[in-house]
Write a structure and sequence with these properties.
By secondary structure, this protein is an alpha+beta fold. The chain folds into two domains: about 40-65 and about 260-445, Alpha-Beta Complex (Cathepsin B, Chain A); about 95-260, Cysteine proteinases (Cathepsin B, Chain A), CATH 3.90.70. The chain is built from 17 helices and 14 strands. Strands 1, 4, 5, 6, 7, 8, 9, 10, 11, 12, 13 and 14 form a twelve-stranded mixed β-sheet that branches. The longest helix has 23 residues, at about 175-195. It is globular, with a radius of gyration of 24 Å. The two termini are about 40 Å apart.
Length: about 450
């Protein structure tokens, strides 16, 4: 079939103008939208009554953290689930794990991961999609649950008091642009070495020098990670404690103690290329070379929510990933598909399915947070309590309310203990070799 190119004609424009001229509401809506904006004009505040922050299951997880001007939500959310556990065990509610410590090692490992991918694709032209994908963002703040597990398994964790935030961890744009400048420069060198048929030893020597420079750049920007420290604190009853001679790994073992292999990534991606009850991974997605692989088990939304509820009922919070910018009111902390009615405002049908949004680039995972509660009515969820990492000035002291319908449409990932999986899914998750998805697949998005 031949599709003819047609320009917009004057007659078409005249018809559109006439349609507006004869619409009695057009000028009123034009004034409202042009002065107040699309979101404020389309907001349906009746949604707020439905999103009252009261839940039948409500975990007490203390004060929220603040990632500030950085993209480390996935890291904050994961460490928050661990600090909830630590706080309960050691009567230590006002406490945070160091997000800067894991941030340092994540960026260091991402640099090495990038170099390895550059070498693996060095025989491809810079115009190839894979090379272009690599160079678009050599590294960034974002990540996924399995990537933080890979960092902790290799480097452990430390209290925030031992490695606090710096200017560059809290406001990461300068560090990211500088580090990406270096990584792209190094990519030029590595690709040229391969083109010149340099020996493996020469390439390894060049890469070692590059990693030493990355370590120096990160140390100046974030501070150098500690290898041994004393943990000194007062618990909630004001009792003094000091634990001497800890390493990041012994601290993790003693104060968190999770077997991270017990926690698995569950996704809901209802696209034709990802049948349910199968596992998936994403090419070129990771941070620690030879470390833990990103692995997702795709399930129906019914199973997805049931697993999250089981973990909340057991008293443990749930890491989850979503597209936070969709139908979300940041200041009030409401995520609800009914909050904005753009269809009615513009008399345009904007509706798409979850699968269509994934396939056509309208949605993907952009943010990670923590589920800390759910409101069950007659055994069915109606709304969810969400611990964010944007500080206490948004939502209800930093906590958001998410409607169950919003979860259906815009939540893509939860992390649960595999003990909550039914036997058939447990077997699939453990034994099935994952299908490898393209690097740009939406399930490879970094929160």
């Amino acid at each position: 079939m031949t599709i003819l190119s047609k320009e917009i004609t004057a007659d078409q424009t005249a018809r559109y103008q006439q349609a507006l001229a004869t619409d009695p509401t057009a000028k009123v809506l034009e004034r409202a939208v042009s002065h107040q904006g699309i979101l404020a004009t389309s907001a349906d505040y009746a949604s707020e009554a439905d999103m009252t922050p009261v839940f039948s299951i409500d975990l007490d997880t203390g004060k929220v953290a603040n990632q500030k001007q950085s993209g480390r939500c996935w890291m904050f959310a994961a460490l928050n689930t661990m600090r909830h556990h630590l706080a309960d065990r050691f009567n230590l509610s006002d406490f945070e794990l160091s997000q800067n410590y894991t941030n340092f090692w994540d960026k260091f490992e991402k640099a090495n991961y990038f170099y390895e991918n550059v070498l693996a694709t060095a025989d491809q032209p810079t115009s190839s999609r894979k090379v272009a994908f690599l160079m678009t963002t050599p590294q960034q703040d974002g990540g996924q649950w399995d990537m933080l597990c890979a960092i902790i398994e290799k480097y452990g964790i430390v209290p925030k008091s031992v490695m606090p935030e710096t200017y560059n961890s809290s406001k990461s744009s300068e560090l990211n642009s500088t580090l990406n400048l270096k990584l792209r420069k190094d990519a030029i060198i590595l690709r040229q070495l391969v083109a010149d048929k340099a020996s493996d030893d020469d390439i390894a020597t060049a890469k070692d020098k590059m990693l030493g420079e990355v370590y120096r750049l990160l140390s100046f920007s974030l501070g150098e990670p500690v290898s041994e420290f004393d943990f000194e604190y007062r618990d909630d009853d004001k009792n003094y404690h000091i634990d001497k001679g800890l390493t990041p790994k012994t601290f993790y073992d003693k104060y968190v103690g999770w077997d991270l292999s017990d926690y698995v990534s569950i996704i809901n991606a209802p696209t034709d290329d990802k049948p349910y009850n199968h596992t998936y991974t994403v090419e070129m997605l990771g941070n620690v070379v030879s470390g833990r692989q990103v692995k997702h088990l795709n399930v129906s939304m019914k199973d997805f929510k049931a697993l999250a509820i089981k973990q909340l009922q057991a008293g443990q919070s749930v890491w989850f990933g979503c597209d936070v910018g969709q139908s979300s009111e940041r200041q009030k902390g409401i995520m609800d598909t009914k909050y904005y009615d753009k269809d009615a405002l513009f008399n345009i049908d904007f509706s798409t399915t979850k699968a269509e949004r994934l396939d056509y680039g309208e949605s993907l995972m952009t943010h990670a947070m923590v589920l800390t509660g759910v409101d069950l009515v007659d055994g069915q969820p109606t709304k969810w309590k969400v611990e964010n990492s944007w500080g206490e000035k948004v939502g209800t002291k930093g906590y958001f309310v998410m409607s169950d319908a919003w979860m259906d449409e815009y939540c893509y990932q939860v992390v649960v203990n595999k003990q909550f999986l039914p036997d058939n899914l447990k077997t699939i998750q453990a034994s099935e070799k994952p299908t490898i998805l393209a690097p740009w697949d939406p399930m490879g998005a970094l929160a």
